[in-house]
Design brief:
Helix content is 74%, strand content 0%. It is mainly α and 226 residues long. Helix 3 (73-98) runs antiparallel to helix 4.
């Protein structure tokens, strides 16, 4: 949902180096944990489906305030987990940049933004389930929270980095970016509700796909029947 739609050379070199370094550190940590702890076969299958769906919807751009779109990173995080969700964010951004959707130089920054959405959505969903929330409000709220974090992080990265060639003072740039973030927060609500519907449907037919315990499965089924 959040994505930095700027061309090559928009960020100064120090900013590119900073966000790329942080992104490499994140992906390196993820790969280490995957190699150390492994992943379940169920998660790998879901990761493949999630990556394909995320990439496809990612290309549908609405030309509003620099471009907004959905990318299902919240759903990917909930289903595939924070580790594979981060790797999917990287893969989707690589292929998108190859098609001209986002600058290659901003790959690190955009990966950080989208990985944060998947990570936050996953942990928020699990926490809300432990608080005995129903599946739909838990998944929808978790996705909205994750996407909101990504939108705010995206805005912070742009403001901190600055934009080469822009005549706007930093204060005016902050106001402009705040408007873009606000639009993305609105899209986050729509995508969060869609995520909630998908997760509730999956939980009603295959609760194991979303890692729901037997006690929660009955609640989901009963809610769907009503």
């Amino acid at each position: 949902m959040a994505h930095i739609h700027l061309g090559e050379g928009s960020f100064p070199l120090w900013a590119l180096a900073l966000w790329t370094t942080i992104s490499v550190a994140l992906i390196g940590t993820v790969l280490y944990r995957v190699r150390t702890n492994g992943v379940k076969t169920r998660q790998i299958a879901l990761a493949g489906i999630g990556a394909a769906a995320s990439f496809a919807i990612f290309q549908l751009n609405i030309p509003v305030w620099g471009g907004v779109h959905m990318n299902l990173t919240g759903l990917v995080g909930i289903l595939a987990g924070p580790l594979l969700g981060s790797l999917i964010a990287l893969v989707v951004n690589i292929f998108s940049a190859a098609l001209g959707h986002g600058a290659i130089g901003l790959l690190g920054a955009n990966t950080l933004v989208n990985a944060s959405e998947a990570i936050v959505a996953y942990y928020a969903f699990r926490m809300l389930l432990r608080l005995d929330w129903d599946v739909f409000p838990a998944s929808a709220s978790a996705a909205i929270l994750g996407l909101s974090v990504g939108a705010i992080l995206m805005g912070a990265i742009v403001v901190i980095s600055g934009v080469n060639g822009s005549a706007l003072p930093r204060s005016d740039l902050t106001i402009a970016v705040a408007g873009m973030v606000a639009i993305n927060l609105g899209v986050a609500v729509v995508e969060g509700l869609l995520t909630g519907l998908i997760v509730q449907f999956l939980a009603s037919i295959r609760p194991d796909l979303v890692g729901i315990a037997d006690s929660t499965e009955h609640k989901v089924s009963a809610g769907v029947t009503l």
